[in-house]
Write a structure and sequence with these properties.
This protein is α/β, with parallel strands linked by helices and about 450 residues long. It is built from 17 helices and 16 strands. The strands form 4 sheets. Strands 4-12-11-10-7-5-6 form a 7-stranded mixed beta sheet, with helices on both faces. Strands 1-2-3-15 form a 4-stranded mixed beta sheet. It has a 3-stranded antiparallel beta sheet with strand order 13-14-16. The chain is globular and about 65 Å long. The termini are far apart. The C terminus is likely disordered. The protein binds pyridoxal-5'-phosphate (PLP). Pyridoxal-5'-phosphate (PLP) binds next to helix 6. The site of pyridoxal-5'-phosphate has 14 residues, from helix 6. It catalyses: (8S)-8-amino-7-oxononanoate + S-adenosyl-L-methionine = S-adenosyl-4-methylsulfanyl-2-oxobutanoate + (7R,8S)-7,8-diammoniononanoate. Its main location: cytoplasm.
């Protein structure tokens, strides 16, 4: 049996209908180098989605490898209750400094979903400690995604992940998404954002005495298809949260670490020249270790931290995970922050993005496509429903393999979130192969099993 078959026998793969997996067997990846993954047959694939949006600087990066080797020889891990270590302290200090000290404390988790759980619990417990125990409700955005654990799913609105578990979930309020694709003929993206803000305001007005926090993905709702919105939304939402005394939680798990063009997406909320504005809690994960090790964290404002200080143990935030603040993971994260400083990653990416944007330009006019969108190092477009056909994502993914692409559309949304290692040549190649894959998929006849059933006529 080859490795893919053994995998299908032994592993219950994530985010996969296993019955369907035989049609789309996993690639048996043997090694990675830069943006390339190599399978056990020696074929290469460009990691167009940065391995679920985590891999910032390519695979097996020499500098991150060196930092990890060094950490491995001194301290791989120690628990963070009753002990501390330099990588965790330095990481917390540096991230706080990147917010101008506004978010003064860092609480460590492991995966993204654990950071969301932490932020929700912190917010709830803050109000309880602040003698306002009625503030227990959470508000989230339609089409939002915050992870798969029960708390995170409760504030998620992606049917395919959520619906089966709905009876188990906390009831959260859902408000209109600021998704710019909803713009009417005479509406701008900012107008759509304004409509979404009005929806939120109506809810806050009615329920603010009971609402603990509002959670959102700033600028891009990732898992529902790289859905983008105008930064005016973030400004207005910050003001509403202030007015109604509701915590603002920014889930930057996907959009943080430079993905949208600034280190934190929320940095784009303030108008140019105005003082920066910040959420109350920020969740970070994925790219923070550049795809090496699981690490997540929640940055909190000091007033939230202060509300937990008490002689009584139970008024503290007693949440914990065994691997909280793992030293290897924190060291990888420090190597990532070093890269941002030394290589001026944000400035370099801004230049690199121009190349790929130019190379993808034909898609903007392609009649088979709608809503081409781009922000920072994210590109996405929707294939029109009339063109996409059934099982579009699977067909596109499989066709992409023949073009040396590892790419997984979401529904009929094709997106690119490449590692930050593009150059002009790679951008031209990537755009060419994406367009060629699209042509292949849309020109191929549908497989028999996927053809719509047409009843025979007499
Ligand atoms: C915005 C957002 N929040 C939370 C998560 C959950 O992160 P994890 O898969 O590491 O639990 C994700 C994962 O895609 C995400 O995109």
């Amino acid at each position: 049996m080859n490795l893919a078959d053994r995998s299908l026998h032994a592993i219950w793969h994530p985010c996969t209908q296993m019955q369907r997996a035989a049609h789309s067997p996993p690639l048996a990846i043997q090694r990675g180098q830069g943006p390339w993954l190599f399978d056990d047959q020696g074929r290469r694939y460009f990691d167009a989605n940065s391995s679920w949006w985590v891999n910032l600087f390519g695979h097996a990066d020499a500098r991150i490898n060196a930092a990890l080797r060094d950490q491995l020889d001194s301290l791989p891990h120690v628990m963070l209750a009753g002990c501390t270590h330099a990588p965790a302290v330095e990481l917390a200090e540096r991230l706080s400094a990147m917010t101008g000290g506004v978010l003064g404390h860092c609480f460590f988790g492991s995966d993204g979903a654990s950071a969301v759980e932490i932020a929700l619990k912190m917010s709830f417990h803050y109000w309880r400690n602040s003698e306002r125990p009625a503030k227990q409700e959470f508000v989230c955005v339609r089409q939002g995604y915050h992870g798969e654990t029960l708390g995170a799913l409760a504030v998620t609105d992606v049917k395919v992940f959520r619906d089966a578990y709905d009876p188990l979930l906390l009831r959260a309020h859902q408000v209109m998404s600021p998704d710019a694709r909803q713009a009417g003929p005479d509406e701008s993206d900012a107008d759509v954002a304004l409509r979404a803000v009005q929806d939120l305001e109506r809810l806050f007005e009615a329920r603010h005495e009971h609402i603990a926090s509002f959670i959102l993905e700033p600028l891009v709702q990732g898992a529902s298809g790289m859905v983008m919105h105008d930064p005016a939304y973030l400004r207005a939402v910050r003001a509403l949260c202030d007015r109604y005394q509701i915590h603002l939680i920014a889930d930057e798990i996907a959009v943080g670490c430079g993905r949208t063009g600034t280190f934190f997406a929320f940095e784009q909320a303030a108008l140019p020249g105005d003082p920066p504005i910040w959420p109350d809690l920020v969740c970070l994960s994925k790219g923070i270790t550049a795809g090496y090790l699981p690490l997540s964290l929640v940055l909190s404002r000091d007033f939230i931290y202060a509300a937990f200080l008490d002689d009584e143990v139970a008024r503290g935030f007693l949440h914990s995970h065994s691997y909280s603040g793992n030293a290897l993971a924190c060291r990888a994260a420090l190597a990532v922050l070093d890269r941002f400083e030394v290589d001026q990653v944000l400035q370099t990416n801004a230049q690199r993005a121009l190349d790929l944007d130019r190379a993808l330009a034909p898609l903007r006019k392609d009649p088979r496509i709608e809503h081409f969108r781009h922000l920072g190092m994210i590109w996405a477009f929707d294939v029109r429903e009339s063109d996409a056909g059934v099982r579009f994502a699977e067909r596109f993914h499989l066709a992409g393999r023949a073009h040396e692409l590892l790419i997984r559309p979401i529904g009929r949304t094709v997106y690119l979130m490449p590692p930050y290692v593009l150059d002009d040549e790679l951008s031209s190649w990537l755009a060419h192969e994406v367009i060629a894959t699209l042509d292949d998929v849309l020109q191929q006849p549908l497989p028999d099993a996927d053809r719509p059933f047409v009843p025979a006529t007499a």
